[in-house]
Every structure is written in C-alpha cells, then in structure tokens.
Amino acid sequence: MRSSLLVGTVRHRRVRPRKYDFTHHVYYLALDLDELDAVGRMVPLLRFERSGLLSVHARDHLGSDRISLADGAREHLAREGFDAADWRITLVTNARVLGYLFNPVSFYFCRDASGVLRVVLAEVSNTHGDRCVYTLRPEGTGAFVAGARKRMYVSPFIEMDAAYRFHIRDDDGGLVVAIQERERCGDVDALTLWAGFRLLRRPLTQGTLLRAALRHPVITLQTIALIHLHALRLWTAGIRFVRYRRPA
C-alpha cells in the first residue's frame, strides 16, 4: 500500500511577547484516498465510515455523507483551478478515537500523475468548531514553500491580522512541516509562533497501528486537553486574550 503510518513529534515555539516552548510525541495516518477500501481490509482496527476504536469519516474532512474523501478533495481542487482527476492525494490526519476527534490541522498532499507535489491543502480546525482549508501552491521549484494570509481565528493569543509560511518536505523517509505565523506589527510581519512536525514513515499494518494506539491510547483527547493546558499557562503568564470572531 502507498498509505503509511507517521510517528514522531510536534513542537510549538512562541517567540513573542513571551517565550514558550513545548514538544509532544504523536502519530498520524497518511492515507492514500484512492485505496481506503484496501486499507480497511488489511487494517481492520481502522474503520472507514463506521464506528470503531479508530475510525475515519468523510464528513470530518472535505467529504460528507454523500461525497467520499477522494471526491471531496478533488472537487475542492477543481474549484481552485486544478484538474486533479488522475492525481494521487494523501491525507495526513488523526482518526477518531472511540468516536472523538479533534484535528488542529490535517494535510492533503496532492501529486500529479508524474509524482510531483503540486499542491498541499492545509485543513485547519479551531476549538469553536470552525474549519478552514488553505490551498498552498509552491512559490518556486525545489523545496515546497508556500504562504497564506490567516483567515480563521485559532489561538486566543494571536491576532487575526497575521500570515502563515509553510516549509514542507514529504518523502519516503517521512514528513517534515515547519509553519511560521507572523502578526502584523506596524509596517512589518513579526514572527510570533513557530510550529513543526517531524515524523518518520512506517508501514501501516494492524500491528504498527495497534502499537501506536497503545502508546497514545486517547491521542485526540490528549490533543484537546493539552491545547487548554498550554492556553491556561499562557494566560496565567499574562499574555493578552484575543476575542473570538467567527469566520466571514
């Protein structure tokens, strides 16, 4: 299978107005959207469109109860001006654990028929139930680097007038993503936050997934709990709260 398991760490480093840094161990699924039926047969621990210990549902992403994950992703790409009918699309995400899901960000790696990474979709969710998809186009040849203006409230400590910059490397060995968030300060964008993933690729089998799930048995609950824990620490450190605004 082209689908795989990704294991490693996620790190956040805030540089202003106060330094704050943390690293956590994580795992993710890297799912080729055209082979989900095969994944379901070979890895019965992971269920698609059905309840289970670990499950993936189209409605949690770009699909719906009527549109598959693959079709939903290709429809989004078509609206953005891409003919992705023969593209290979890999979704990097967490599954629901006992029905519960919170994914701060999922990525769709979109390669053309020759295997070139043409587009990355960053599907961002916040704790208010909002979701926003950034269509990232590489700015040149070589390393995949792309930028996007912030369109949705995420952190309660970062203003909306901000921009993201993504540096991405996805290969046979694993996945490295570095994200800079810069807030507008006068006439310049000042770096506020750096976030990154460093993940190694493993075969996606019943055994490898079971070991990852036992190592992180409630990873989605862990994610939301840690978000609130770190927010509490930042608030008690005196960092100013930014009022929530729903996306237009």
Task: Describe what is shown at a glance.
The protein is α+β, with helices and mostly antiparallel strands and 248 residues long. The chain is built from four helices and 13 strands. The protein has helices spanning 36-42, 69-79, 206-215, 219-236, and strands at 4-14, 20-32, 46-48, 54-56, 88-93, 96-97, 105-111, 117-125, 131-136, 144-149, 162-171, 174-185, 188-203.
Largest sheet: 10 strands, antiparallel
What is the typical, i.e. mean, pLDDT?
94
Low-confidence stretches: none
Order of helices and strands: EEHEEHEEEEEEEEEHH
Structural class designation: alpha+beta
Query: N- to C-terminal separation?
Result: 40 Å
The count of strands amounts to 13
Write the layout of secondary structure elements.
Blueprint: E1 4-14, E2 20-32, H1 36-42, E3 46-48, E4 54-56, H2 69-79, E5 88-93, E6 96-97, E7 105-111, E8 117-125, E9 131-136, E10 144-149, E11 162-171, E12 174-185, E13 188-203, H3 206-215, H4 219-236
Parallel strand pairs: 3-4
Antiparallel strand pairs: 1-2, 1-13, 2-5, 4-6, 5-7, 7-8, 8-9, 10-11, 11-12, 12-13
